[in-house]
Amino acid sequence: MRALLVDRSSRPLSASAGLRLGEAPDPQPAPHQALIRVTAASLNYGEVRFSLADTPDGTVLGWDAAGVVEQAAADGTGPAVGTPVVTLGLDGAWAELRAVDTDWIGTVPAGADLGSVSTVPVAGTSALRALHRLGPILGRRVLVTGATGGTGRYAVQLARRGGAYVIASTGDPERHGDSLRAQGAHEVVTGSGLLHLKEPVHGVVDLVGGQQLIDAYSMLAERGTLVAVGHAAHEGETFPYGALFGDNGRHDRSIVTFSLPACHGLAPDLTWLAQHVASGELDPQISWRGSWEKAGDAIGALLERRLHGKAVLDIT
Question: Under the phi-then-psi rule, with left for phi > 0, alpha for psi from -120 to 50, and beta for the rest, what region is 297?
Fold first, then answer.
Protein backbone atom coordinates (compact mmCIF):
# COMPACT_ATOMS: atom_id res chain seq x y z
CA MET A 1 0.00 0.00 0.00
CA ARG A 2 0.98 3.64 -0.33
CA ALA A 3 1.51 5.62 2.85
CA LEU A 4 3.02 8.80 4.24
CA LEU A 5 6.23 7.57 5.84
CA VAL A 6 8.40 9.37 8.34
CA ASP A 7 11.64 10.05 6.47
CA ARG A 8 14.18 12.64 7.52
CA SER A 9 16.91 11.54 5.15
CA SER A 10 15.91 11.13 1.52
CA ARG A 11 13.98 13.83 -0.36
CA PRO A 12 11.01 14.12 1.98
CA LEU A 13 7.62 15.31 0.81
CA SER A 14 8.31 18.36 2.94
CA ALA A 15 11.64 19.14 4.50
CA SER A 16 9.88 20.65 7.51
CA ALA A 17 7.43 17.77 7.83
CA GLY A 18 9.99 14.97 7.37
CA LEU A 19 7.58 12.84 5.34
CA ARG A 20 7.50 11.13 1.96
CA LEU A 21 4.94 9.14 0.03
CA GLY A 22 6.14 5.58 -0.31
CA GLU A 23 5.27 1.92 -0.06
CA ALA A 24 4.61 0.16 3.23
CA PRO A 25 3.44 -3.39 4.05
CA ASP A 26 -0.31 -3.86 4.22
CA PRO A 27 -1.44 -4.01 7.86
CA GLN A 28 -2.47 -7.44 9.14
CA PRO A 29 -5.53 -6.99 11.36
CA ALA A 30 -5.86 -8.89 14.64
CA PRO A 31 -9.11 -10.84 15.19
CA HIS A 32 -10.72 -7.86 16.96
CA GLN A 33 -9.71 -5.41 14.21
CA ALA A 34 -11.26 -4.43 10.89
CA LEU A 35 -9.26 -3.44 7.81
CA ILE A 36 -10.25 -0.01 6.52
CA ARG A 37 -9.71 1.45 3.04
CA VAL A 38 -8.90 5.06 4.02
CA THR A 39 -10.46 7.94 2.12
CA ALA A 40 -9.47 10.90 4.28
CA ALA A 41 -7.44 11.68 7.40
CA SER A 42 -7.45 14.76 9.60
CA LEU A 43 -4.44 16.21 11.37
CA ASN A 44 -4.02 17.04 15.04
CA TYR A 45 -1.47 19.41 16.51
CA GLY A 46 -0.24 16.85 19.04
CA GLU A 47 0.67 14.20 16.49
CA VAL A 48 2.56 16.58 14.19
CA ARG A 49 4.22 18.46 17.05
CA PHE A 50 5.37 15.43 19.06
CA SER A 51 4.86 12.10 17.25
CA LEU A 52 6.44 13.31 14.03
CA ALA A 53 9.47 14.59 15.90
CA ASP A 54 10.03 11.48 18.02
CA THR A 55 9.15 8.57 15.70
CA PRO A 56 11.66 6.40 13.78
CA ASP A 57 11.90 6.62 9.99
CA GLY A 58 9.50 4.35 8.15
CA THR A 59 6.66 4.79 10.67
CA VAL A 60 3.11 5.43 9.45
CA LEU A 61 1.55 8.00 11.76
CA GLY A 62 -1.97 9.38 12.09
CA TRP A 63 -4.76 9.21 14.65
CA ASP A 64 -7.90 10.17 12.66
CA ALA A 65 -9.18 8.52 9.48
CA ALA A 66 -12.44 7.83 7.67
CA GLY A 67 -13.05 5.30 4.94
CA VAL A 68 -14.81 2.05 4.11
CA VAL A 69 -14.51 -1.40 5.70
CA GLU A 70 -12.47 -3.62 3.38
CA GLN A 71 -12.31 -6.64 5.69
CA ALA A 72 -14.55 -7.16 8.71
CA ALA A 73 -13.13 -8.26 12.07
CA ALA A 74 -12.63 -12.02 12.31
CA ASP A 75 -14.24 -12.18 15.75
CA GLY A 76 -17.56 -10.91 14.38
CA THR A 77 -17.50 -7.53 16.10
CA GLY A 78 -17.76 -4.21 14.33
CA PRO A 79 -19.29 -3.16 11.01
CA ALA A 80 -19.62 -5.27 7.86
CA VAL A 81 -17.62 -5.03 4.65
CA GLY A 82 -18.58 -1.94 2.62
CA THR A 83 -19.70 0.14 5.61
CA PRO A 84 -18.47 3.76 5.66
CA VAL A 85 -16.73 4.37 8.97
CA VAL A 86 -14.72 6.83 11.03
CA THR A 87 -11.77 5.46 12.99
CA LEU A 88 -9.46 6.36 15.85
CA GLY A 89 -6.04 4.85 16.50
CA LEU A 90 -2.62 5.63 17.89
CA ASP A 91 -1.04 5.41 14.41
CA GLY A 92 -1.62 4.21 10.86
CA ALA A 93 -4.14 6.78 9.59
CA TRP A 94 -1.89 8.28 6.90
CA ALA A 95 -2.10 5.27 4.59
CA GLU A 96 -4.39 3.61 2.06
CA LEU A 97 -5.18 0.78 4.50
CA ARG A 98 -5.56 0.79 8.26
CA ALA A 99 -6.24 -1.95 10.83
CA VAL A 100 -8.40 -0.63 13.70
CA ASP A 101 -9.86 -2.07 16.90
CA THR A 102 -13.63 -2.33 16.45
CA ASP A 103 -14.09 -0.49 19.78
CA TRP A 104 -12.63 2.55 18.01
CA ILE A 105 -14.77 2.43 14.86
CA GLY A 106 -17.93 4.45 14.35
CA THR A 107 -20.36 4.00 11.48
CA VAL A 108 -21.11 6.86 9.09
CA PRO A 109 -24.36 7.62 7.21
CA ALA A 110 -24.29 6.60 3.56
CA GLY A 111 -23.30 9.42 1.25
CA ALA A 112 -21.62 11.51 3.95
CA ASP A 113 -18.49 13.49 3.13
CA LEU A 114 -15.80 11.33 4.70
CA GLY A 115 -13.35 14.22 4.72
CA SER A 116 -15.61 16.17 7.05
CA VAL A 117 -16.28 13.12 9.18
CA SER A 118 -12.54 12.41 9.52
CA THR A 119 -12.29 15.43 11.85
CA VAL A 120 -14.35 13.68 14.52
CA PRO A 121 -12.09 11.12 16.29
CA VAL A 122 -9.67 13.15 18.42
CA ALA A 123 -11.24 16.61 18.34
CA GLY A 124 -14.90 15.63 18.54
CA THR A 125 -14.65 12.79 21.03
CA SER A 126 -12.22 14.71 23.27
CA ALA A 127 -14.70 17.58 23.43
CA LEU A 128 -17.65 15.27 24.04
CA ARG A 129 -15.94 13.27 26.79
CA ALA A 130 -14.62 16.40 28.49
CA LEU A 131 -18.14 17.82 28.64
CA HIS A 132 -19.47 14.52 29.98
CA ARG A 133 -16.88 14.80 32.76
CA LEU A 134 -18.26 18.19 33.76
CA GLY A 135 -21.59 16.56 34.55
CA PRO A 136 -24.96 18.18 33.78
CA ILE A 137 -24.37 21.46 31.96
CA LEU A 138 -27.94 22.57 31.21
CA GLY A 139 -28.19 26.14 32.45
CA ARG A 140 -24.56 26.14 33.65
CA ARG A 141 -21.73 28.47 32.66
CA VAL A 142 -19.03 26.61 30.70
CA LEU A 143 -15.70 28.12 29.67
CA VAL A 144 -13.73 26.70 26.73
CA THR A 145 -10.12 27.91 26.51
CA GLY A 146 -8.25 27.65 23.22
CA ALA A 147 -11.62 27.70 21.53
CA THR A 148 -10.39 28.35 17.98
CA GLY A 149 -8.66 24.96 17.60
CA GLY A 150 -10.36 21.83 16.31
CA THR A 151 -11.27 20.46 19.74
CA GLY A 152 -12.27 23.88 21.04
CA ARG A 153 -14.69 24.50 18.19
CA TYR A 154 -16.36 21.14 18.77
CA ALA A 155 -16.53 21.86 22.50
CA VAL A 156 -18.25 25.21 21.92
CA GLN A 157 -20.87 23.66 19.65
CA LEU A 158 -21.51 20.66 21.89
CA ALA A 159 -21.72 22.74 25.06
CA ARG A 160 -24.31 25.00 23.41
CA ARG A 161 -26.30 21.96 22.28
CA GLY A 162 -26.17 20.71 25.88
CA GLY A 163 -27.86 23.87 27.13
CA ALA A 164 -24.83 25.61 28.64
CA TYR A 165 -24.07 29.31 28.66
CA VAL A 166 -20.85 29.11 26.64
CA ILE A 167 -17.84 31.38 27.09
CA ALA A 168 -15.16 30.92 24.43
CA SER A 169 -11.61 32.08 25.11
CA THR A 170 -9.23 32.92 22.27
CA GLY A 171 -6.05 34.87 21.75
CA ASP A 172 -7.75 37.14 19.21
CA PRO A 173 -11.44 37.78 20.02
CA GLU A 174 -11.73 40.48 17.39
CA ARG A 175 -10.65 38.13 14.62
CA HIS A 176 -12.47 34.98 15.76
CA GLY A 177 -15.41 36.37 17.70
CA ASP A 178 -17.98 36.22 14.91
CA SER A 179 -17.22 32.61 13.97
CA LEU A 180 -17.24 31.44 17.59
CA ARG A 181 -20.57 33.14 18.23
CA ALA A 182 -21.94 31.52 15.09
CA GLN A 183 -20.93 28.15 16.53
CA GLY A 184 -22.76 28.83 19.78
CA ALA A 185 -20.62 30.97 22.08
CA HIS A 186 -22.58 33.49 24.12
CA GLU A 187 -19.41 35.39 25.03
CA VAL A 188 -15.96 35.55 23.43
CA VAL A 189 -13.12 36.68 25.68
CA THR A 190 -9.36 36.90 25.52
CA GLY A 191 -7.28 34.20 27.15
CA SER A 192 -5.36 36.82 29.13
CA GLY A 193 -8.58 38.27 30.54
CA LEU A 194 -10.16 35.28 32.28
CA LEU A 195 -9.79 36.88 35.71
CA HIS A 196 -12.14 39.63 34.54
CA LEU A 197 -15.13 37.38 33.86
CA LYS A 198 -18.23 38.90 35.39
CA GLU A 199 -19.34 35.70 37.12
CA PRO A 200 -17.76 32.38 38.12
CA VAL A 201 -18.11 29.38 35.81
CA HIS A 202 -19.34 25.89 36.67
CA GLY A 203 -17.07 24.03 34.27
CA VAL A 204 -13.97 24.53 32.16
CA VAL A 205 -12.71 22.61 29.13
CA ASP A 206 -9.08 23.73 29.09
CA LEU A 207 -7.05 23.25 25.92
CA VAL A 208 -4.19 25.61 26.72
CA GLY A 209 -2.67 24.85 30.11
CA GLY A 210 -0.08 27.08 31.77
CA GLN A 211 -1.26 30.39 33.18
CA GLN A 212 -4.64 30.11 31.46
CA LEU A 213 -5.39 26.91 33.36
CA ILE A 214 -4.48 28.62 36.63
CA ASP A 215 -6.65 31.64 35.82
CA ALA A 216 -9.56 29.48 34.66
CA TYR A 217 -9.40 27.39 37.83
CA SER A 218 -9.60 30.54 39.93
CA MET A 219 -12.92 31.36 38.22
CA LEU A 220 -14.56 28.06 39.13
CA ALA A 221 -17.68 28.21 41.26
CA GLU A 222 -18.22 25.88 44.21
CA ARG A 223 -18.20 22.22 43.08
CA GLY A 224 -16.93 23.30 39.67
CA THR A 225 -14.68 21.11 37.54
CA LEU A 226 -11.84 21.93 35.15
CA VAL A 227 -10.94 19.22 32.63
CA ALA A 228 -7.35 19.56 31.38
CA VAL A 229 -7.60 18.33 27.78
CA GLY A 230 -4.85 20.18 25.89
CA HIS A 231 -1.54 21.83 26.71
CA ALA A 232 -0.95 24.22 23.81
CA ALA A 233 0.97 26.70 25.95
CA HIS A 234 3.77 24.17 26.61
CA GLU A 235 4.10 25.67 30.07
CA GLY A 236 3.96 24.26 33.55
CA GLU A 237 1.40 25.30 36.15
CA THR A 238 2.59 26.84 39.41
CA PHE A 239 -0.34 27.84 41.60
CA PRO A 240 0.14 30.81 43.93
CA TYR A 241 -0.37 30.39 47.64
CA GLY A 242 -4.07 30.36 48.46
CA ALA A 243 -5.25 29.27 45.00
CA LEU A 244 -6.31 25.88 46.34
CA PHE A 245 -8.10 27.12 49.44
CA GLY A 246 -11.68 25.92 49.76
CA ASP A 247 -13.26 28.85 51.59
CA ASN A 248 -15.31 31.78 50.29
CA GLY A 249 -17.35 29.82 47.75
CA ARG A 250 -14.44 27.69 46.53
CA HIS A 251 -15.47 24.42 48.20
CA ASP A 252 -15.05 21.12 46.34
CA ARG A 253 -13.54 22.40 43.10
CA SER A 254 -11.57 19.88 41.06
CA ILE A 255 -9.02 19.55 38.27
CA VAL A 256 -9.36 16.42 36.16
CA THR A 257 -6.72 15.07 33.79
CA PHE A 258 -7.72 13.48 30.52
CA SER A 259 -6.54 10.78 28.12
CA LEU A 260 -8.78 9.83 25.21
CA PRO A 261 -7.23 6.35 24.64
CA ALA A 262 -8.12 5.46 28.24
CA CYS A 263 -11.83 6.11 27.62
CA HIS A 264 -14.13 3.13 27.09
CA GLY A 265 -17.05 2.81 24.68
CA LEU A 266 -15.82 5.26 22.06
CA ALA A 267 -17.55 3.57 19.11
CA PRO A 268 -21.01 4.96 19.98
CA ASP A 269 -19.50 8.43 20.48
CA LEU A 270 -17.81 8.27 17.07
CA THR A 271 -21.07 7.14 15.45
CA TRP A 272 -23.15 9.88 17.11
CA LEU A 273 -20.69 12.62 16.21
CA ALA A 274 -20.37 11.38 12.62
CA GLN A 275 -24.14 11.45 12.21
CA HIS A 276 -24.34 15.04 13.40
CA VAL A 277 -21.47 16.17 11.19
CA ALA A 278 -23.06 14.41 8.22
CA SER A 279 -26.41 16.09 8.88
CA GLY A 280 -24.83 19.53 9.19
CA GLU A 281 -25.80 19.91 12.85
CA LEU A 282 -22.10 20.06 13.81
CA ASP A 283 -19.65 22.09 11.76
CA PRO A 284 -16.17 20.48 11.56
CA GLN A 285 -14.64 23.87 10.77
CA ILE A 286 -12.19 22.64 8.13
CA SER A 287 -9.63 25.38 7.49
CA TRP A 288 -7.33 23.41 5.16
CA ARG A 289 -8.12 20.51 2.82
CA GLY A 290 -6.07 18.98 0.03
CA SER A 291 -4.27 15.93 -1.32
CA TRP A 292 -1.99 14.04 1.01
CA GLU A 293 0.75 14.90 -1.49
CA LYS A 294 0.59 18.38 0.08
CA ALA A 295 0.67 17.15 3.67
CA GLY A 296 3.80 19.16 4.35
CA ASP A 297 1.97 22.41 3.63
CA ALA A 298 -0.81 21.56 6.07
CA ILE A 299 1.61 20.41 8.76
CA GLY A 300 3.69 23.56 8.41
CA ALA A 301 0.60 25.75 8.78
CA LEU A 302 -0.54 23.73 11.79
CA LEU A 303 2.81 23.95 13.56
CA GLU A 304 3.01 27.69 12.89
CA ARG A 305 -0.49 28.17 14.33
CA ARG A 306 -1.81 29.55 11.04
CA LEU A 307 -4.75 27.12 11.01
CA HIS A 308 -7.77 27.69 13.23
CA GLY A 309 -9.90 24.58 12.87
CA LYS A 310 -9.12 21.25 11.22
CA ALA A 311 -6.83 20.19 8.37
CA VAL A 312 -7.96 17.27 6.19
CA LEU A 313 -5.85 15.13 3.86
CA ASP A 314 -7.64 13.42 0.98
CA ILE A 315 -6.04 10.02 0.43
CA THR A 316 -5.94 9.88 -3.38
Answer: alpha
* Model pTM above 0.85: yes
Tens-digit pLDDT string for the chain (316 aa) = 999 999 877 544 554 568 899 999 999 999 999 999 999 999 998 888 887 777 888 999 999 999 999 999 999 999 999 999 999 999 999 999 999 999 999 999 999 999 999 999 999 999 999 999 999 999 999 999 999 999 999 999 999 999 999 999 999 999 999 999 999 999 999 998 899 999 999 999 999 999 999 999 999 999 999 999 999 999 999 999 999 999 999 999 999 999 999 999 999 999 999 999 999 999 999 999 999 999 989 998 888 888 888 999 999 8
What angle, rounded to 10 degrees, do the helices at 150-161 and 125-134 form? 50
The packing angle between helices 266-278 and 125-134, to 10°, is 110
Q: Are 237 and 214 in contact (CB under 8 A)?
A: yes
Cα–Cα dist 62/97, whole Å = 12
Distance CA(303)–CA(288), nearest Å, equals 13
Contact assessment for residue 85 and residue 68, using Cβ atoms and an 8 Å cutoff = yes
CA atoms within 13 A on the CB side of 26: 9
Q: Are strands 201-206 and 220-228 parallel, antiparallel or unpaired?
A: parallel
Q: What is the largest CA-CA distance in the chain?
A: 62
Q: How far is CA 209 from CA 47, 48, 156, 288, in A?
A: 18, 19, 18, 25
Answer for the pair 106, 85: CB distance below 8 angstroms, yes or no.
yes
Q: Which of 197, 202, 32 is nearest to 134 (CA)?
A: 202
